[in-house]
Fold:
Amino acid sequence: MSRVSDRTRGVSPVIGVVILVGIVAILAATIGVFALGFSDQQPTQAPQVAIVADYSERTTGNGEYLNLSFSSGETVYRDNLSVVMSGAKRSDGSDVTLDTDPIQAQASTQITSGTQITIHQGQFTGIGSGEHLDLSDATLRLVWNPADEQESETYVIYRWPDPSQRN
Structure:
C-alpha cells in the first residue's frame, strides 16, 4: 500500500463523527423546545379598535368634557377595559382624580362600533361647586387587560391626545 491511501483513510471516520454529533445536537435542541412547551407560548394580541375623540373646551356649565366614540374595529368586552387619566385639573389648577371608570359606568358588556363614552366633571373627585374641569393638560389611556390569562401583559389600545400632536 502507498502512503497516500493511509492518510486519506482516517479522514472519512472523523467527518462521519462530526456530522453525527451535529445531527444529535440539532435533534436534542428540537426535542427540548417541544418538551418545554416554548411553541405553545404565543403573545396575546390586543384588539384593534378605532376611536374618535371629541374634546370640548368649556362648552358646558361644568367645564370641559371628552367624548370617545368607538368607530370601528374588533368587539371588546367592557370588563377587559379601563380608563387611566392623569393631569386633569379643576379651574384653579389643583389636581383632580377620576372617581368612576366611565367605561364600566356607560358601556354595555360588549363594546362595538357606535359605542360612545363621555368623560365629564361628575366623574372626578375634588371639584367643588363653582369650579370647572380642565382637561387641557390631561392624558387619557384606554388599557386592555386580557381576563383569561393571569400572567399576560396589559396593552394601551388608545391614547389621548396623540403624543405626536401634544404641544
